[in-house]
Design brief:
It contains eleven helices and twelve strands. The chain is α/β, with parallel strands linked by helices. Bound molecules: iron/sulfur cluster.
């Protein structure tokens, strides 16, 4: 189901030619899927009926179904729960900024990376998403709101570099001039730090943004909150980021979730400043989201300010992530967890 939506125009041409139709139909089909965001063959009125029937029979497609939608009254953020064709549930978020709409999408159903502060990993990874299911989240939100999406962050559930090929195909589809044509510079891939995959991504020399979930300044601390740190040391992760910068000349964003008493002391800030000083980077401080399954608490406002101030002394550009949708279960993965509990899973 839905596999045809992962295809490039060249791949669609093969299908079309095998049906004895003209090659230009492939571009038309691609435009229906990715520009007009129409996934129902019956609506594709510039394609011959015969072709539509064959496609319907051999390449069934099913849109993502909105099963729940929560709108923030504070800032217009909307959280969506989508049901996939095999009834799995994923979560996406629309955030409205002055500069345009940003959508945070999932790359997997669940996640097996085990980060201690994250609700998405509580039941592990169920499966990877298809590129079509990644673009589908954006199309469904765009159609539901009737608003254009101009920024994408792959920061919902899942580790997007685990299946690098899927993420690369997603970028190709969403960036395509015959589709939504969202610029690579408006796409951010967030990773917990898979070193070989960061290097492989760097080799692609794309202009997308890399966000690295750092969250600690020593291997010991990082290992305590992120199991992946047992596989790759901080030194290796930072070396991979340097490599990414060297290949792409793009600034790397380091995500740092502040957890009270865990990683928010002045000495942590100094160590972080020392590690990142002079690097083409930016730190995004995130007051950690409290989730039912874990006991972490968000840092106090005074600790956050102190942390930011120290980083600035080191000349490291730092921002504090604005908490959006605070009134609607904002934390990543929480809405889905709540829905699954309700469904008895
Ligand atoms: S933070 Fe990201 S990588 Fe870590 S468990 Fe959650 S979804 Fe997976």
């Amino acid at each position: 189901m839905n596999e045809i939506l992962n295809h490039t125009i060249a791949e669609l041409e093969e299908i079309i030619l095998a049906y004895g139709e003209s090659k230009f139909r492939a571009k038309q089909l691609f435009e229906w899927f990715h520009k007009k965001m129409v996934w129902d063959y019956d609506e594709m009125n510039n394609l011959p009926l015969k072709l539509r029937d064959k496609l319907k029979e051999n390449y069934p497609i099913q849109s993502l179904r909105i099963v729940e939608k929560l709108c923030s009254e504070i800032d217009g953020t909307i959280k969506y729960l989508f049901e996939l064709s095999d009834s799995h549930i994923i979560e996406s978020v629309l955030m409205r900024y002055k500069h345009g709409n940003s959508v945070c999408i999932s790359s997997q159903v669940g996640c097996r990376m085990g980060c201690k502060f994250c609700a998405s990993t509580v039941e592990g990874r169920v499966r990877n998403l298809l590129p079509a299911e990644m673009v589908g989240q954006i199309y469904a939100i765009s159609k539901d709101t009737n608003e254009r999406v101009s920024n994408i962050v792959i920061m919902g559930s899942g580790e997007p570099l685990e299946e690098l090929g899927v993420t690369l195909r997603f970028v190709e589809l969403i960036n395509h001039p015959s589709g939504q044509n969202i610029g690579q510079r408006h796409i951010t891939v967030s990773t917990c730090g898979l070193v070989p995959e960061i290097k492989a991504l760097a080799e692609e020399k794309l202009q997308i943004n890399l966000a690295l979930s750092l969250h600690a300044t020593t291997d010991e601390r990082r290992q305590a909150i992120m199991p992946i740190a047992r596989k790759y040391s901080l030194e290796e992760v930072l070396a991979a980021c340097h490599y990414f910068i060297e290949k792409t000349n793009r600034r790397v964003t380091f995500e740092y979730a502040l957890i009270e008493g865990e990683n928010d002391k002045e000495e942590d800030a100094r160590r972080l400043g020392g590690l990142l000083k002079g690097m083409l980077c930016h730190v995004n401080l995130i007051p950690v989201n409290q989730i039912d399954e874990r006991s972490y608490k968000s840092s106090k406002a005074s600790s956050i300010e102190r942390f930011k101030g120290v980083l600035e002394q080191y000349g490291v550009p730092t921002t504090l992530r604005r908490t959006l949708g605070a009134d609607i279960d904002a934390a990543c993965g929480q809405l889905r967890r709540r829905y699954l509990k309700k469904r008895g899973e």
